Amino acid sequence: MKYFITSMGTWALPLFIITAAILVLSVKKVIDLYFRKDLTAGEMARGLHAILFWGSITAVVGLLGQLSGMYKSMQVISRAAAISPALIAAGFGESLTTTIFGLQVLIGAGIIWFILLNRYNRLQQGLK
Questions:
Q1: Cα–Cα distance for residue pair 61/13, rounded to 1 Å
Q2: Please, what are the averages of pLDDT over each run of 10 residues along the chain (128 residues)?
Q3: With contact defined as beta carbons under 8 Å apart, do 74 and 95 qualify?
């Protein structure tokens, strides 16, 4: 796991910050939709779609990390007289791990968003 995180390079920090924001938004919306009874429809809906939005941004940042890792690998290849597989592997490692992480966060955010949206719709229809 430590290798997975360190292989993301400089993209790890923004990915983890956005993931933390998604978790905070998700916990707030779970509390709002499942435990609070004093909210209006607008207050219940506020921030709901932000979960999916930030999940999508995480996937895009993961793709940017992929392009960055591939670019670094190509720079190593173009400058080296003798190509080191370890240097190339590091660039491709960054490339793959950021994409994997970003897509995993998007999938999780999408599932959470769908569950919470369903709960919101049921509350709006008067169903519990």
A1: 11
A2: 74 93 97 93 93 97 89 80 73 82 96 97 84
A3: no
Tokens of 97: 């791990």
Please give the pLDDT value at position 3. 67
Q: Could you tell me the two tokens for 54?
A: 């930030």
Q: What's the Cα-to-Cα distance from 65 to each of 31, 42, 85, 105, rounded to whole Å?
A: 33, 36, 20, 14
Q: Which residues, 6 or more positions from 106, have their beta carbon under 8 angstroms from its beta carbon? A: 55, 56, 58, 59
* Contact criterion met (CB below 8 Å) for 54 and 18: yes
Q: What is residue 25's predicted lDDT score, i.e. its pLDDT?
A: 97
Q: Are 72 and 25 in contact (CB under 8 A)?
A: no
- On the CB side of 26, CA atoms within 13 Å amount to 20
